[in-house]
Amino acid sequence: MKAHWKFGALVVVIVGTLVWLAAGGFSETKTYYKTIAELDQMGAGALGKRLRVAGDVETGSIERTGGRVHFVLRQEHRKLRVVYQGTAPLPDTFRDGAQAVADGQLARDGVFLASKVQAKCASKYEAQPGRPPGAPVTKAGL
């Protein structure tokens, strides 16, 4: 009977440890999506938190220095300086005017340190002028 209690106690300790590790891992991987305006309003509360911020890449702001890429995200009249230093290459659609989402943390100097960047170019997916959406493409339409 004592062996059953020892085995039960061991199972409880193992399950408890797994639940604790899972809860801790979940809280560390949470990412909050914020607009640039919301990020400004958070002030020092944004420091150290994993965040996602979206906006349009400002024309002429992309600068590549070594393994880093510096650029500015613009959303309405607000701007956010971003530094990307990740292991994955930036997407082909990452260019001036593209919509981008930066995933990372805000540094004390107000620069957003991105570990991941996603981008899309809205103009690439728009319908051609004079042709209704969903209309078949013909050689004459190209």
Bulk shape? elongated
Largest beta sheet, briefly?
A: 5 strands, mixed, barrel
How far the N terminus sits from the C terminus, by CA atoms, comes to: 81 Å
CATH topology of the domain at 31-125: OB fold (Dihydrolipoamide Acetyltransferase, E2P)
Number of helices: 2
Query: Please, what is the average pLDDT?
Result: 79
- SSE arrangement, N to C: HEHEEEEEE
CATH architecture of the domain at 31-125, by name, is: Beta Barrel
Number of strands: 7
CATH superfamily of the domain at 31-125: Nucleic acid-binding proteins
Beta strand %: 25-35%
Main-sheet strand order equals 2-4-5-7-6
Structural class of the helices, strands and pairings? alpha+beta
Report the top-level CATH class of the domain at 31-125: Mainly Beta
Overall helicity: 10-25%
Radius of gyration: 23 Å
Q: Show unreliable segments.
A: none
Question: Would you mind describing this structure in some detail?
Answer:
- By secondary structure, this protein is an alpha+beta fold.
- It has a domain at 31-125: Beta Barrel (OB fold (Dihydrolipoamide Acetyltransferase, E2P)), CATH 2.40.50.
- Helix content is 25%, strand content 32%.
- The chain is built from 2 helices and 7 strands.
- It has helices at 2-29, 36-42; strands at 32-34, 51-57, 63-65, 68-75, 78-84, 99-106, 112-120.
- Strands 2-4-5-7-6 form a 5-stranded mixed β-barrel.
- The longest helix has 28 residues, at 2-29.
